[in-house]
Structure formats: structure tokens, C-alpha cells
Write a structure and sequence with these properties.
9 helices, two-stranded antiparallel ribbon, mainly alpha
Length: 218
């Protein structure tokens, strides 16, 4: 659900200009629109996005129950998957709202920097509104500190702030470190586990812990 298409790029998909994406499914008039899912990309199926998603907020404005649109189009896919992960944009517009309505849990990444930590308050307010009015079963699964530099005092202090202020809301998971290996894996369009496995083993272990945590949410 990210108009930047970061996850689509990560998987190395070079979509032609006329390729079908989540945008087409959202804007379709069909009762059960087809989903242009790309299958078995390193063991993962992906419903791609692109910059056209940026137009959705204006184009859905006249549609009835627009907030339920994503939930409706994913209904047909839920029977085929144990988990569906929705990658939200870094904003609190309609795309994030309809994603929260379609979700069962929210996993919140927080860069261990002051500005990112401060912005979490706005996200929590938005989640609370969605829980109250549109998705009463929505739960915050946990917070994931990211791009963490353990040797940096500022990062250490922000991590402590995150633990002190947010641990009463949901678990604080192990921080994901700032690491060149993660950037390199993104550049190669491969999962980190498939890139120089021995060298990246400690970081891969953190992601495996995160995956195990998500699996327990069922």
C-alpha cells in the first residue's frame, strides 16, 4: 500500500507501465476484483504497488464505504494464506487508514531517532480512532526499533525512551541494527538470508525472531 513501491522494488520487480497493481484492484468496479499477485518470489507472494496509488485518496472520495475497500478485495485471498502482510506508507492518509481497517494486528517500526519517536504519538492516536469506530478487533502487536546504532548514545537514549513509554502498550522487540548488509540486500533485491549467510547470521537471527513472533499472533 506504499505509492513509493519500495517493497516491489526490493523484490526486483521491474513493472511495465501498463502492469496491474493493487491500485487496479482498489479502483475496480467488480464485486471480487482479480488480484495481480506475483507468486513465489523467494518463497513470498507479492501484490505490487506503484506511484498510481498516490491518486487513490482523491479517486475513492465519491465511493460508498471507501474505508472498507482494501478489506473487501483481500477477503478472497485470505483463504489461501496463513499471513497477509500490508506494507503501509509513511503517512497517516487514507491508504494507511484502509490498511488498518483491513488488518488484525499492527507491527510498528520506529527509527531510534527523536523525530520518528515523536511521530509515533500521531500514529497511536490514529490507531485508537480506527479501533473505536472502524475495526474494534485491531491490536498493536508490538514495536520494532530500527536502524539502531548500539554505539551511539543518542540511539541508546531513544531506545530507552521507547521501552519506558511504549512497553505498557505492546511488547518492544529486539532492535534491528543499522547495517550495510541490509542495504546491500535491498539493492540486490534478495532476502538478507540469501546474501552472504555466514557474515549476516546475527542480523538474520533477529529477523527470524521477528518472524517467529508474528507467527505466534495467529
Amino acid at each position: 500500500m506504499d505509492p513509493q513501491g519500495s517493497l516491489t522494488d526490493f523484490f526486483g520487480l521491474d513493472l511495465p507501465s501498463d502492469a496491474q497493481t493493487i491500485y487496479d484492484a482498489l479502483m475496480s468496479d467488480a464485486e471480487e476484483p482479480s488480484l495481480p499477485i506475483h507468486q513465489n518470489l523467494d518463497g513470498v507472494d507479492l501484490l505490487p504497488s506503484d506511484i498510481l496509488l498516490a491518486n487513490v485518496e482523491q479517486e475513492l472520495v465519491a465511493q460508498l464505504e471507501r474505508e472498507l475497500r482494501l478489506k473487501e478485495i483481500l477477503t478472497s485471498a485470505t483463504k489461501n494464506y496463513a499471513f497477509i502482510l500490508i506494507d503501509c506508507p509513511p503517512s497517516l492518509g487514507l491508504l494507511s487508514i484502509i490498511s488498518l481497517i483491513a488488518a488484525t494486528h499492527v507491527l510498528v517500526p520506529i527509527h531510534t531517532q527523536h523525530k520518528a519517536f515523536k511521530g509515533t504519538a500521531s500514529l497511536l492516536k490514529t490507531i485508537a480512532k480506527v479501533q473505536k469506530r472502524l475495526n474494534k478487533s485491531l491490536r498493536i502487536a508490538g514495536f520494532v526499533p530500527t536502524i539502531y546504532a548500539a554505539a551511539n548514545i543518542h540511539d541508546q537514549n531513544k531506545l530507552q525512551d521507547i521501552k519506558e513509554q511504549l512497553s505498557g502498550i505492546a511488547p518492544i522487540l529486539s532492535p534491528i541494527p543499522r547495517a550495510t548488509a541490509i542495504a546491500e540486500a535491498s539493492g540486490e533485491g534478495k532476502p538478507l538470508a540469501l546474501c552472504s549467510v555466514g557474515r549476516n547470521k546475527p542480523i538474520v537471527a533477529l529477523f527470524e525472531q521477528l518472524a517467529a513472533f508474528v507467527e505466534e499472533l495467529q
